[in-house]
Design goal:
Number of helices: 14
Number of strands: 19
Helix content: 25-40%
Largest sheet: 10 strands, mixed
Radius of gyration: 25 Å
Strand content: 25-35%
Shape: globular
Amino acid sequence: MSAVPKRSLLLAGGGLKVAFQAGVLQVWLSEAGLTFDHVDACSGGAFNLALLCDGRTGIEIADLWRQMRPRDGVSFSGSGFLHGRSIVTMDAYRDTIFPGWGLDFDRIRASPITATFTVHNRSTASRETFSAAEMDLDKLVATLSQAVWFPPVEIDGHYYTDAVFDTDANVDAALEQGADEIWVVWTVSRRPEWMPGALAQFFHALEVSANGTLESDLERIRMNNEVPDRHFGRHVHAKVLRAEVATHYLALFNGDRLHRAVEQGVRAARAWCDAQGIPYTPIDRSHFYDTDVALRFSDRLRGRLRGRRAEADLQLLVPDAGAFMNTGHQRVEVRGTVTSSVLDGAATVEEGHADILLDVRSPSVPVESGGVQEADDGVDPTRKLMTYVLHLRTPTGRAVTFLGVKDVSTPTVRAAAREAMTMSCRVLEGWVGPDDEAVELATGLLWMGFRDVAAQLVGARADGPSLRAEAAGLARYGALFAGSLWDVAARKVLTYAPF
C-alpha cells in the first residue's frame, strides 16, 4: 500500500434509505474533513453523488434531505401502469426534486471529483459506469430506474436501468481506480425475515441479490489479502458501515421519518469516527427543526407496587414538536404524581423525563477480518422502548426514584398495543439514574385501560401560533406514534410504515 492510501467511497443504493447516507456525508466530509480520491454511486446513492459533483458540501447535502418531502417525488405512471410498463415514473424527480435541489448538469460535468455512476445496460446485459463528465438528466434518472417501479431510460438505442440486481456497491469501479481503501455506506436491509406478499418479496429478492453480491466482493478482497501473489496486485482495505434504516425503499410519504434517517446517519457516522479514532467537530443542526408548537398529553396508569395499589397520573410535555418528530431523540418532560402506600401517599414528580418510542440500539465495534472492517449502527426499528425516570418527593419528604419501562416488541397488533399500555416499574431509594446502584424499595406493573387511552387521545393539546399549526403538530405526533407501532406490529402489511 502506498504511504498515502488511495481511497474510494461507495454510496450504495437503498432507495429513500439513502437519506442516512446524507447524514454520514455531513460527518465524514464536513465535520471530519475526510477526502476521497474516487466516489461511485449505485441506485439511490446517485442522488448524493450528483449533489457532490454539483459542488455541495456534506452539510449542504444533509440539509437538502432535511428539507425534502418524499411525497413531492411521487408521480404515477397512468397509461404506463395499464400497459405494464411501470407503476410510477421519475417525472416528479425530473420536474420537482432535482430542480428544487438546484442540480446543474454543467457544474456536474465540470466537477473535479473522480466520480462514476453505475447502471445496468439491458441491451448489452452488462454493468456500465458513467463518469461525471458524461452525466445528464437522463443518465441520472437511469441510475434510479428500478425495474417494475420505473420505466427504463433509452439512451442512444440502449435501455438502462438501476444496477441493483447486478451490484448495489460497485467494488470493481473502486478497484479499477486503484483504490487501496474502499469505504462503503450500506443501508440495504439484512434482517433475517421473509414477509408475505408480492411487494415485500420483490424487495426481499432485491436484498438477496444486493447483499449476496456485496458479501462475494468482500470475500474476494479477503482472499486477495491472504495470498502472497495478490489478485489485485496490492493489499486492499475495505471499511463497511451498515445500518437498518426505518424507511421503506419507495413507499414513504412522511418527511419526518425521512429526516430521522438523516439524523440516524449523523449519529452512526460520529460513532464510527469515535471507534476509528478519527477527530471531528460536530455541527449543530438542532435548530433546523425548530417550531413554535409545544405538545401536552396525559399518561394515566393503574396497577400495583409491591403488591399494593398504585396509580400514576402523569403529564408529558414536548417543548418543541419539530425537534421531537424529526431528530430521533424523543425525550419529553414529565410532571404529575405517583400514588401508593409504598410512597406514603401521592408522591410529586419534582424532576422527570421520558424517552418515547426509541428504537433499541446496540452499535457494534468495528470488526476486522482479512482486511475487511465492518460495523453496524445496531438500530432495531422493530422494537420500541418507552423509558421513564422520575425523581419523586413523597408526602413525608423522602426522595425516591421511579423507573418505568414499556417494551413494545411483539409483532402482532393486539400484543403490541398491550405492551404499549403496560409499564414495568421499580422504585429506588434516593434520586438516582437508571444505571446507578441503589436500594430497591419496590417493583410492580402499571397499565392503561382503554378509557385511559381514550382520555389520552382526547386530552392531547398543542400550543402554537395558530389553530392550523396546533392541528398539524398533533397530526404529526399521531403519525409518529402510529408509525412506530406499525414498525413492530404491521410489518406483514408493509415492512415500515409509509408515514
